[in-house]
From TrEMBL:
GO terms for cellular component: cytosol. It comes from marine metagenome. GO terms for biological process: dTDP-rhamnose biosynthetic process. SUPFAM superfamilies: NAD(P)-binding Rossmann-fold domains (SSF51735). This is RmlD-like substrate binding domain-containing protein. Signal peptide: none annotated. Gene3D superfamilies: NAD(P)-binding Rossmann-like Domain (3.40.50.720). InterPro entries: dTDP_dehydrorham_reduct (IPR005913), NAD(P)-bd_dom_sf (IPR036291), RmlD-like-bd (IPR029903). Residues 1-150 form the RmlD-like substrate binding domain. It holds the Pfam family RmlD_sub_bind. One of its GO terms (molecular function) is dTDP-4-dehydrorhamnose reductase activity.
Amino acid sequence: MKVLILGGDGMLGHQLFKYFQERHDVRCTLHQDITKYTQYGLYDEINSYTGIDVMSFERVKEVVCDFMPEILVNCIGIIKQQSTAKESIPCIEINALLPHQLALLCKQVGARLIHFSTDCIFSGKKGNYLESDPSDAGDLYGKTKFLGEVNDDICLTLRTSIIGPELSRKKSLLEWFLAQEGTIKGFRKAIYSGFTSLEMSRIIELMFVHPKAYGVYQVSSEPINKY
């Protein structure tokens, strides 16, 4: 299957790219020049489109129309840990507007879109949220991610939480843990029901063979608690 991953150098994107390489005809987009990624041994000038800034959607269109994927996986988003997470314009353009632009583009080229939302669209105050519950996030990140959810018959939007290794940015929880020395403090009375990026890769591949899997779903694992 022809798969295009937008954001192939991110935490989830690079794991999807690695996982799909031996199974599918996969390409990815990278934000920087190919020379910035040689140390990882993952990317080359054939399997990747480099220097892609999604703020220039015309360039994204060119990539999609060149490769003509059957599946387009959007792994691009501004996360809470980034400094731009408090800036309205990039958050609105990338988290809220881009997914809908991609959905329209997928309709035009006959592709399916898989897009990732987040459990952060909910504040956690109510608990036991359903897919049909309205977002009650109070921050810009949660609000823009909710606006970016695509509920369409050519798109599968997954609300989930992911942990995993990163290539370069080192902004995630796992990388923070690995960078610490000695004893670190954690949370009590906490429950986590997310996935590793590798397990999410397996889940996404299962969705490839289910064309009727569309709409918005909350995807979680068996909860791990700390009491």
